[in-house]
Amino acid sequence: MLSIYEKLENILRMNDESTYYKIAEVIVANLFNKKILSQKDLSEQSYSSLSTITKFSKSLGYSGYLELSILLKLEMEKYSAKKTKPSSSFLKLDIEKEIREWIKNNTVFVENFISILKGNSFFKINTSYQLASSGLFLKDILTIKNKNVSLITENFSLLKNTTNRKNEDINLVLLSGRDTFTMISYLNLNSQNWNMNNTFIFVTPNHFKKLTTKFKNVMIIDFESDNSSFILRTFAFNYLFALISEYI
């Protein structure tokens, strides 16, 4: 059974700028400050009506916002109690420093990645749902640099065998999150025909074990504060891609 936070993550993962997306975004943003808004405050901050907040809550399986907020508070307290290193301030968590250290530990991969981005024109970004927004961010960066980029996200059409343009495409893979069965099946089916020198994969340790292809260029997602969340991983990859963009 999904937690409330996971349900909110699923809405944010769609990145569709809908009313429900905005409501979920406001709730999650306040959770970082350990704050759960009243229905009125949530309505004002998300520019939604009170009735829309109620409908949003019911869409997640609750009788209304009151039940959702009570259970969310219990969930937040339960999560906080599990922390082994409690902090009086979120700002004490130097997530940016941890991500920089993660990048530094993968210097060879990152330098090769930058080199391949600079020296080629055709790219295919294959991304699971969780990192779809980061994949789109990378696509926008490469497009600005006058690169030809296609973006493939997790969907059943991926199971159809596809071939690269005379093996010229550089395959970039972003693989993390829960909904990855189709993407893993797609990779195991198609990547055998890819040029491993032209393939770069960002992947969690657990997902890497499920891949049958022996990839040459791999960056494991293992920065210290990684907790599998959509928000933290999206921040990490957008930070990485923003840094890389300065060298392309």
Automatic annotation (TrEMBL):
Q: Known Pfam families for this protein? A: HTH_6
The name under which this protein is listed is HTH rpiR-type domain-containing protein
The record ties this protein, via InterPro entries, to:
Homeodomain-like_sf, HTH_RpiR, WH-like_DNA-bd_sf
Boundaries of every HTH rpiR-type domain copy: 2-79
GO MF annotations in UniProt: DNA-binding transcription factor activity
